[in-house]
Structure formats: C-alpha cells, structure tokens
Design brief:
GO terms for molecular function: metal ion binding; molybdopterin molybdotransferase activity. Its cofactor is Mg(2+). One of its GO terms (biological process) is Mo-molybdopterin cofactor biosynthetic process. The radius of gyration is 30 Å and the shape is elongated. The chain is built from eight helices and 28 strands. The protein has four domains: 58 residues, Molybdopterin biosynthesis moea protein, domain 2 (Alpha-Beta Complex), CATH 3.90.105; 80 residues, Molybdopterin biosynthesis moea protein, domain 3 (Molybdopterin biosynthesis moeA protein, domain 3, Beta Complex); 154 residues, 3-Layer(aba) Sandwich (Molybdenum Cofactor Biosythetic Enzyme, Chain A), CATH 3.40.980; 71 residues, MoeA, C-terminal, domain IV (Beta-clip). Helix 4 runs parallel beside helix 7. The protein is an alpha/beta fold and 406 residues long.
Length: 406
C-alpha cells in the first residue's frame, strides 16, 4: 500500500491540472458606470492629453517668470473653466486652482506670497519658469497606452478612463459559477435545527468570495446524498455554468458521491492533494451539450478547507478565465513567525494575521488550526505556507500569501 506522501499530489501538480487549456471568456461592451471590478478585454489608448492644457496648481497670480520681483497690474481674472485672454508682459492675472494658464504666462505665485494694493500685485523675486504649473500631458499623452488588457477596473482605473471621456468599455464576461452543497445534514440558516443537522456555512462564504474574485454565481443548489441525484445536479449545473463548485462529497465515505459522479460524467484530473487543510479535492471537467468544457472544483465540506481552497484554486481559475494576470498567484510576503509548528508529508496553509511595524512583518497564528474551526479565518489576512516535513519555531521566516483581490 502506498504511503500518504506517495499517494497525494503536490499543489503545483494541482494547479497545472486546474488551469490546463483554460482560456479567456468572450468580451462584452458595458457602460463605464457599471464596470467597477470588471477586467479589460483589450488595451485602451489615450485619446487626449491629461491635463489637456497648462493650468494652475494653486490659487495665486500668473505671470511671465522674467517679471518676478516687480509690482504688476492685475490684468484679468481666470477661474477654472474660463477661457483666458493672452497676458501681456509687465502684467499678471489673478488665477485659481485648475484655471487655464493664459498665453504669455509661464509660472504662478501662490497668493500667500503676494501683496495686492489698488489692483497692483507686488511679487517676490526668483520665481522659476513652470513654478506651480501643471503642464499639458503631464499625466497622460494622447496616443500612449492608458490601461493594459487584463487590468481590473478599480477606483483609480475608472477615473483614468473617465478622464478620457470614455463611457463604454470592453470587458471580459464574468465566469458563471454554479455552487452545489452536498450533505443531507446541511440546511439553510433560518430553519430550526433537527438532531444531527448543521447550518450551511460554506454557501454564503463562497458566494461572497466568488463574487469578490469577479465571478457571477448563477445557481446555488443542494445536492442529495445519493449517486443519481449527484450526477443529475452536476450535469444540469454544467449546462448553465463555466465553473461548477461543490462542497463536500469528495472523500471516501459511502455517502460521498461527487468524485464518482464526476468520473461518470466527464474527467477527473486530480483528486487527493498533499495540502492541509483540503486533502480531498476533486478537480475535473465536464463537456456539456453545447460542447463547452466546464471546469469542476469539488471542495471539502469543512468550512476552513472551503475557505482556503477558494483562495488557492478558485481565484486563479477565475483569473485565467478573465485573462487577469494579477490573479494568477496570491501576493507573497515574508514574515517572522511568533509560533511554533511542525508538518508531516502535507504542506500546511495556516491562517495568520500579519502585523506591520518598524521591526518588520510578523505572522500571528490562530491557536486552533483545525479545518472545522471557521473562526480561524475570520481575522486572517494571510495564509502562512509551511512546507512538508518542516519544523517552525518563533523567529523563523515564513512565506505568507496575502489574501487580496485581485
């Protein structure tokens, strides 16, 4: 009989099986107002300079730098949105932040440094050319790349697009996910518990994570604890989704039917992994009636395994379908451990909270790392990666995966 270490697949092999031949989904045009969190399907070139004209960086007085140190008549007033008159040498213009710099002026003096008496502004000397002026094209030059394909449209990127006058963007369609919950003992919150029953913690947790990763959950469904019912639910889910995610039913018990159903309907690419939590994990695919290949990820039923599995597997799978390179891997930080632990043949992903100080980054592990203790995930902001056959002591350096999206 094979030892556990020989029978289990490493996570690198799991990732290769998960992402093999996964391509980006088709794109669609949507209003910019609806594009928050979406992923660009094509690069966007700048259509105009930003700023589109030289303008004042503050409230003050515009002049030619050669007239610094003089007392000059105030020839005009320029507010943001005005079209200024040309400025003659030997005069200055009262100007406000964002106001277009008059032709003939090349610098601005902040108002606190100017004394005004009877329409005459007395200006300090040694004012350099370009002082307090935001030059045309300082941020963006027309024709240059504005945003790359694969960019996730967060707040700043949306502002960047709006600054070009763009109101429609071409983005990847959201991956459609069917989320299946197995187990006759699982019931929805709000229903009184009968003996032996537990509430479905995985469903709301995974819906939230899937949407955070950029997917659309198109179905949530309970799967009965029988072989035929499991096959029916998997087959029907594959007709409406790009990804089918199940929780529970992937172990070796008599009531665990997901693995067998997946083998009957499609292909099981990989099953048992050398990781903790989450050893029983089914990765495979089903070809539906439309001849589309649908990915299937069978997560363990323990809530911590579902939480960790979502970050390790669902996030990069969704990222590949969105062609978002930033989601290929979780950001990696190195932190100093404040705990001790040891591992056997499986790689351990410990729930930790990272703290940041002048002394560096420190990883604080939750005391109970059992796969059924969901409270270990509530305050976690990272997963500490403890390799197989390792001994970790306080003060050791550990790789930690930062839990962030994308």
């Amino acid at each position: 009989m094979a030892s556990e270490s020989n029978a289990l697949a490493p996570i690198k092999q799991a990732m290769q099986a998960l992402l093999h031949e996964v391509g980006p989904l088709i794109s669609e045009n949507i209003p910019l107002a609806d594009a928050a969190g979406r992923v660009l399907a094509e690069p966007v070139a700048a259509q105009m300079d930003v700023p589109p004209f030289d303008n004042s960086a503050m409230d003050g007085y515009a002049l030619h730098h050669a007239d610094a140190g003089s007392s000059l008549p105030i020839a005009s007033r320029v507010a943001a949105g005005d079209t200024p008159l040309a400025l003659e040498r030997g005069t200055c213009a009262r100007i406000f932040t964002g106001g277009a710099l008059p032709r003939g002026a090349d610098c601005v003096v902040m108002q606190e440094k100017v004394t005004v008496t009877d329409g005459i502004a007395t200006l300090p000397g040694d004012i350099p050319q370009g002082d307090n002026v935001r030059r045309r094209g300082r941020d963006v030059t027309a024709g240059n790349l504005l945003l790359e394909a694969g960019t996730r449209l967060e707040a700043a990127a949306l502002g960047h697009l709006a600054g070009q006058g763009i109101n429609v963007v071409n983005v990847r369609k959201k991956p459609r996910v069917a989320l299946l919950s197995t187990g006759d003992e699982i019931i929805d919150p709000g229903i009184p518990l009968a003996p032996g029953q537990i509430y479905n913690t995985n469903r709301p947790m995974l819906v939230s994570l899937l949407e955070r990763f950029g997917a659309e959950v198109v179905q949530t469904r309970h799967v009965p604890d029988d072989a035929q019912g499991t096959r029916t639910c998997l087959r029907e889910a594959a007709e409406i989704a790009d990804i089918v995610v199940s929780t529970g039913g992937v172990s070796v018990g008599e009531e665990d039917h997901v693995k067998a159903a997946l083998e009957a309907l499609g292909k099981l690419n990989l099953w048992r992994l050398a990781i903790r939590p989450g050893k029983p994990l089914a990765l495979g695919r089903i070809t539906n009636s439309h001849n589309q290949v649908v990915r299937v990820v069978g997560l363990p039923g323990n809530p911590v395994s579902g939480f960790v599995g979502a970050w390790l597997f669902l996030r990069p799978l969704i990222g590949a379908m969105l062609s978002c390179n930033a989601m290929a891997e979780l950001p990696s930080l190195w932190a100093t451990s404040d705990f001790s632990t040891s591992t056997g043949p499986r790689q351990h992903y410990m729930r930790v909270r990272l703290s940041f100080s002048r002394d560096g980054i420190h990883a604080h592990a939750f005391a109970d790392q059992n796969s059924g203790v969901l409270s270990s995930c509530v305050g976690a902001n990272a997963l500490a990666v403890v390799p197989p056959e390792s001994q970790i002591a306080p003060g050791d350096s550990l790789e930690c995966l930062w839990l962030t999206s994308p």
